[in-house]
Amino acid sequence: MELGERKKKILRAVIDQYIQTAEPVGSKTIAAALGMSVSPATIRNEMAELESLGLLEQPHTSAGRIPTALGYRIYVNELMDEHKLSVRETTEINNALKTRIQQLDKLLADAGRITSRLTSYPAYALAAAASSVTITRFDLIYIDTNTFIIVVLLSNKTVKNKLVSLPFPVERETLNKMAALFNAGFTNITEDKITPNLISSTERAANDQLGLTAVIAAFSIEVLSEAKTRETHFTGASSLLEYPEYRDVDKAARLMRYLSDENELARLPVPDDSGNMKITIGPENLAEELRDSSVIVARYNAGDNLEGLIGVVGPTRMDYSKVAARLSYIAQGLSWLLSGGDKLKGLLGEKMDNNDLYNTKGD
Predict the structure, then answer these.
(1) Are 264 and 287 in contact (CB under 8 A)?
(2) Helices then strands (H, E): number in the chain?
(3) pLDDT band for position 303 (cuts 50, 70, 90)
(4) 72-117: per-residue pLDDT in tens?
(5) Average pLDDT over residues 329-358
(6) Dist. CA 135–CA 191, nearest whole Å
(7) What's the DSSP call for residue 65?
(8) C-alpha separations of 7 from 11, 34, 71, 82, 105 in Å
(9) Residue 103 vs residues 109, 118, 338: alpha-carbon distances, Å
(10) Cα distances (angstroms) measured from residue 72 to each of 113, 222, 267
(11) Which is nearest to 138 in space by CA: 166, 161, 169?
């Protein structure tokens, strides 16, 4: 959609003003904000044309205009200024990341809380292992004649184990042979490669009449399947009530219930392969509960074949430029913290370049 320069300036001014006030914006306000040498009547005509293009709407006959979802999309893609994080903002984010992200098992909860506090919107954090996670080593530890432990080391450096109690005796030498066969045939392959044919051939090679092969293979599949499962955390739901768009308690409750469902969180928008950030506005979201909200999400590298997503949900009136800049900085900080080394020093000890931000244009 091609807009003249004056229409672009007016649309941007309406959205900037509406973000700040949550009130319909009139022509006199825009004339004062732009300092343009045109009359409010001319601006009213331009706003009427923007309304006919579906970029603005008038909630009441005597009221000013507010942006539509399409108007926000034009704003995000073409009109908004890149928000430059201040020294105070970058210091606050760095300090929060440095002091709160200490253990991997607290990563998602801490990242969500930090993001919610720094953006003033509800935040969600997700992490999932890459689909290429494999088992790199098997150990079968003999306990007694009826008990042994399966221990597997994954390519993401995590260790899983299972205590197996048998209704029949098993010899130590049998477990050693089984471990050797599994290390030869089941390591460095993904879950989909553990086929019935592989299990059967291993069973024949071991001359297994007891069903041990099936027990160990089943645990292998279970571990690799769990490694791909996306873990989710959601925090800051109560902050929705601070915004006039969610003063309808029923509306706010529906959205909060939706965002509290881990299965729904896992289906929220994700950045495309070509970018590390995605912005979806109002009806661009498929879920009915999100039709009056916007979602901004950024991808970060969690290391060890893990990738993460950190995002916020808020009204379509959110300050996209500022939120995208902060979210981008947080995601980049998480990537650097979790990768360690010189990059960690660069984040916490030196000032990051504010121009080094992810693409925030979305689709």
Answers:
(1) yes
(2) 13, 10
(3) low
(4) 999 999 998 878 888 888 887 777 766 554 454 466 677 788 899 8
(5) 55
(6) 9
(7) B
(8) 6, 12, 12, 20, 50
(9) 11, 21, 10
(10) 27, 45, 23
(11) 161
49 vs 45: CA distance, rounded Å? 6
Q: Report the pLDDT averaged over residues 248-260.
A: 89
CA distance 33 to 27: 10
Other beta carbons within 10 Å of 296 = 28
> What is the tens place of the pLDDT at every residue in 129-169?
555 789 999 999 999 999 999 999 988 777 899 999 999 99
The candidate with the shortest Cα–Cα distance to 256, out of 273, 242, 241, 268, is 241
Q: What is the pLDDT of residues 12-27, one digit of tens each?
A: 999 999 999 999 999 8
Residues in the chain: 363
Q: Give the tokens for residue 260.
A: 């509290």
The structure tokens listed for 201 are 């051939």
User: Which residues neighbour 243 within 8 Å (Cβ) at sequence distance 6 or greater?
Assistant: 22, 314, 315, 317
